[in-house]
Amino acid sequence: MGEVMQGAGVSPGVGTGPVRTIAGAVPEPPAGSRHGGDAGAEGDSALAALEAVAADLEERGERAAAAGNADGRDVLNAQALMARDPGLADGVRAKIGEGTSAARAVFEAFGVYREMLAGAGEYMAARVTDLDDIRDRAIARLLGLPMPGVPESDEPFVLVARDLAPADTAVLDPAQVVAFVTEEGGPTSHTAILARTMGVPAVVALAGATSLPEGTRVLVDGAAGTVLPDPSEAEVATARAAAAARASALEESTGPGATKDGHAVPLLANVGGPKDVEAALANGAEGVGLYRTEFLFLDRAAPPSDEEQEEAYRKVLEAFPEGRVVVRTLDAGADKPLAFLPAPGEEPNPALGERGLRMMRRHPDVLVSQLAALTRAAAGLSVKLQVMAPMVTGADEAAYFAAACREAGVEHPGVMIEVPAAALRARDLASEVEFFSIGTNDLTQYACAADRQVGGLAHLQDPWQPAVLDLVAPAAGAGVPCGVCGEAAGDPALACVLVGLGVTSLSMSAPSLPLVRAALVRHTLEECRAAAAAARAARTADQAREAARAHLPGLADLGL
User: Fold this and answer.
1) Which of 20, 295, 314, 356 is deepest in the core (most CB within 10 A)?
2) Looking at domain 24-143, does it have CATH number 1.10.274.10?
3) Is 441 labelled as part of a ligand binding site?
4) 442 belongs to an annotated ligand binding site
5) pTM (2 decimals)?
6) Euclidean distance between CA atoms 198 and 322, whole angstroms
7) Is 551 a catalytic residue?
8) DSSP 225
């Protein structure tokens, strides 16, 4: 038996099998390598390689769609667009014009984009792997090397890699690949998204994953985020039994969210647009607790038209005629930079700079346009539309936003609580708006002064930190309804603690809803309150987890 390796579980389920690793990386073309003198022919070869890569990606996308993976096709088509980017082609030709060989020119041209994405925040940085994959495939073609990709195997296996490219992930056969394990990646990476789509257990951000010897039998638990090398048959049986019990419990988990003694806790979904509605409904979402409208604005040179906004909002609103939809106004800046909303100056610490409502106050026309589109979208519908602003610090900002909402015809304004100052003075903000929604990811980042993009600070980016729970408490007790829409809401144990702190609704990614619903219905409100008190009394995040679990006996039924 080996030692349990801990990563981040991004797709639940249990898988066991031998390790198979992705074929060796494509080597970097030597710096300073030159072509033979015909820059025109060299450039044509480079662009032909990129076009061949794009065509191959599209063909893989069609295969993925034919197998029922439409999301995979969308991801691969987006990659194909990257390969055909005119700016990239210009960069390649320019370097070849200076005498650089085609392969080296491709490598260097991609490097420019790579640096831009890596430095543009969490969301954009997650696309770096996609860019590297396109680069490597083009270079492999130019140098006549084997194409990077998934290994062949005559038995089901656990696929291990530094990271997985969408081109490989989207066409995998779930009957052949029983689990994914990667050394890099995160919950927003394409690997994680596609793994959940395919229903394959997956663990990412597992340090040392690629050091697992080829053929080593491992047990992967995508819910716990663990990998156990050389498991015994008893350990495999125990894990499978726990997964089966959990699956059975989840099948029985239906209806509105509530504690065991009937305390209602509406369970809502986080969505990025109409395409996410189907999954939300399939998992029993009672509404939307966080509509991230920035996905409508990203990767554009200008804001979407009023008509386009209205259509996108209305599609989500129409899906929940008896529920509510909480829309977050454009959260630009920091890790979501927009070309048409540049920061007013250099920002050494973008997360502390002009973002969210701060940016909208500099560009009120964008805010007014969005609020007007929301009002029109909700006209004549029975759904309750609530609109909230991100990155609010004080009561004056809350008042500004509420006034803007009411002027535009939005009846239910609210604000996000993600800044410690807002949490500590929540009662001041409560007099200005109708509701709060706590963004635990940013609240943790700011409370612990730990940048979300710095992996080495992961131990401080933990919403179980007692200091973070101490900040949730005053917001939840400020006298207005207070939901949570950060990752913390999707943690079944922490969800119970949040309810115990006074949180009135929970919003999360759609696949997390059944497990949270099942955890809540196994505990009374008093048990949740006891768990919350125990967690706040702890000194560390780990101790808070353990202390809370002692008051949440129903978690064992779920194999948690």
Assistant:
1) 356
2) yes
3) yes
4) yes
5) 0.71
6) 31
7) no
8) T
